[in-house]
Recover the amino acids of this structure.
């Protein structure tokens, strides 16, 4: 994994604390990276003012953009002592996720950083439609950060998929662990591999009276253990930091993350969209719904965003 040299930070005008910027500065300061603080704005009322000419509407829009640009530059000034190179960019766009992805592609950024929102009463992370679009369609790694610092000697979870041995999943597992290793070296963070394996299908036991469910379950567990341990050995991770547990990944990964008090979960998302996503869904997205720490989502090598396909 190449180090993060160009970071795209999504500013949040509704938040007092710019969590994404704080996290990006942490990463940039150890990599001598550059940060672009990005904000996409849109107000439909400016488009509907029919009594104004197109030139007047454009002037009004530009006035709003300039106002927000001043606000973003103010944010940057507040972190002038960080010695991180930062620039501001504000654009007028009616779809925030599209503007973020288009900027990520055009600028060839190594990482997109965006803050998550926390439910005040439940103290759990809430993912917005923009978050979901970024996770599904952004070709660059996406870090969704919550308001909590990464402690020295904390823990990272790598959610690996060893249920299949196809090239796409194997390369994605490798990519996930490589990103974790790079972060671990910088922050002295401990890496844990987590994998959930399926329970024995109930219908098999019912339809096949002679079916040995316990033996079948043990065989599946051993196969998953063997593959996870192989990954761990390949990357020099102790087997004591491997967690293979029966259950759906969307249940196992958040559970282990909570047990370990992990500060970051790294997982892969294939990025299905359209009917395929609606019918099949992504395991990653089910995991995300139940997670309560920072999340780094990676795409497989060669992934092409739907926005690139439309261009």
């Amino acid at each position: 994994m190449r180090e993060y040299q160009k970071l795209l930070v999504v500013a949040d005008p509704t938040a007092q604390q710019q969590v994404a910027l704080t996290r990006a500065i942490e990463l940039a300061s150890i990599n001598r990276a550059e940060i672009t603080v990005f904000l996409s704005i849109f107000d439909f009322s400016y488009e509907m003012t029919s009594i104004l000419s197109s030139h007047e509407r454009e002037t009004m829009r530009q006035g709003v953009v300039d106002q927000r640009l001043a606000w973003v530059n103010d944010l940057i000034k507040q972190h002038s002592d960080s010695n991180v190179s930062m620039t501001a960019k504000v654009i007028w766009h009616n779809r925030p996720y599209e503007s973020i992805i288009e900027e990520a592609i055009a600028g060839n950024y190594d990482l997109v950083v965006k803050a998550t929102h926390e439910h005040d009463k439940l103290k759990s992370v809430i993912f917005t439609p923009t978050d979901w679009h970024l996770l599904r369609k952004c070709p660059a790694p996406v870090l969704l950060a919550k308001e909590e610092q990464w402690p020295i000697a904390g823990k990272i979870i790598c959610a690996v998929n060893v249920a299949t041995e196809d090239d796409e999943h194997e390369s994605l597992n490798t990519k996930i662990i490589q990103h974790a290793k790079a972060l671990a070296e910088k922050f002295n963070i401990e890496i844990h591999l987590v994998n959930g394996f399926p329970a024995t299908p109930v219908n098999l036991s019912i339809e096949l009276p002679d079916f040995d469910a316990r033996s079948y379950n043990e065989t599946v567990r051993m196969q998953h253990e063997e593959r996870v341990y192989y990954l761990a050995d390949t990357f020099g991770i102790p087997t004591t930091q491997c967690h293979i547990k029966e259950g759906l990944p969307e249940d196992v990964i958040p559970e282990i993350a909570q047990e370990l008090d992990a500060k970051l979960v790294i997982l892969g998302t294939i990025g299905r969209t359209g009917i395929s996503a609606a019918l099949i869904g992504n395991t990653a997205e089910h995991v995300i719904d139940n997670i309560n720490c920072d999340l780094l989502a990676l795409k497989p090598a060669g992934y092409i965003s739907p926005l690139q396909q439309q261009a």
